[in-house]
Amino acid sequence: MELIDIGINLAHESFADDRAAVIERARTAGVAQLLVTGATLASSAAALELAHAHPGRLFATAGVHPHQAGELGPAELPRLRALLAEPGIVAAGECGLDYFRDYSPRATQRTAFAAQLELAADCGKPLFLHQRDAHADFSAALRGHRGALRGVAHCFTGGEAELATYLEMGLHIGVTGWICDERRGQPLQALVARIPAGRLLLETDGPYLLPRDLRPRPASRRNESAFLPHIAATVARLRGETIEACAAHTTAAARLLFGLGAGD
């Protein structure tokens, strides 16, 4: 049984002291491949370095998260374009809109998102998408995307209408340990069986979103790819399928979307 963690922030400073051990624990747990998320220009470059250091096992995304939208002005676009052209970068993002935190002005977010949609179309890369409390503007931007719309609604926590919209658009749906939360995860628990096989992807979003029901809980409270089987087991149970079946279709879908080869 092989799993793919399609979203882990492995360049995050919390992994600085034991990154190699985290990668090895993932392998031991049956997580064959990892996508390292780029959320700023610097973390995208660091994610690419990790992908180059672990070819065929680690891959990277390159983009600017809406929280940091202000760092992506016209002068920075050539650098992001160059990153997206690099071997090892398999998706454009993490990009999108976040009106829940509003760490960047909404107009700035929309401008940065539009620029990244253009770059993704130019380079032919699928999108690694973030949306929180911005569904209308987010969906409108995607409907205006001039390329073939391919990508994943990363860390999906929305409701029935949002799920229907993203599936109608052709997006894949990324599910994290949020689904293991007995309080916040209940709406997603009720919806996960509606995601067709072939459109469902699994991710940790480590170091964030440690599953609340994980036992024993790590003292650091840090999430990592080795915990993806726990998430997969919850998803499989809620979908009424075996974990082996869940692993098979989510792994196949991730490899097809992001153009990954088989794991080592």
Q: Supply the CATH class.
A: Alpha Beta
CATH topology group: TIM Barrel
The secondary-structure element order is: EHEHEHEHEHEHEHEHH
In terms of quaternary structure, what is this?
A: single chain
Helix content: 25-40%
Strand content: 15-25%
Radius of gyration: 17 Å
Strand line-up across the major sheet = 1-2-3-4-5-6-7-8
Give the N-terminus to C-terminus distance in angstroms: 13 Å
Description:
The longest helix has 18 residues, at 106-123. It contains nine helices and eight strands. The chain has an eight-stranded parallel sheet with strand order 1-2-3-4-5-6-7-8. The chain is globular. The protein has one domain: Alpha-Beta Barrel (TIM Barrel). It is α/β, with parallel strands linked by helices and 264 residues long. Helix 5 (135-143) packs parallel to helix 6 (160-169). Helices cover 39% and strands 16% of the residues. Helix 7 links the parallel strand 7 (172-175) and strand 8 (200-202).
Quick synopsis:
By secondary structure, the protein is an alpha/beta fold. It is 39% helix and 16% strand.
Q: What is the topology?
A:
Blueprint: E1 3-8, H1 19-28, E2 31-36, H2 41-53, E3 58-62, H3 77-84, E4 89-98, H4 106-123, E5 127-132, H5 135-143, E6 151-153, H6 160-169, E7 172-175, H7 186-191, E8 200-202, H8 228-239, H9 243-258
Q: What are the salient characteristics of this protein?
A:
9 helices; TIM Barrel; alpha/beta; 264 residues
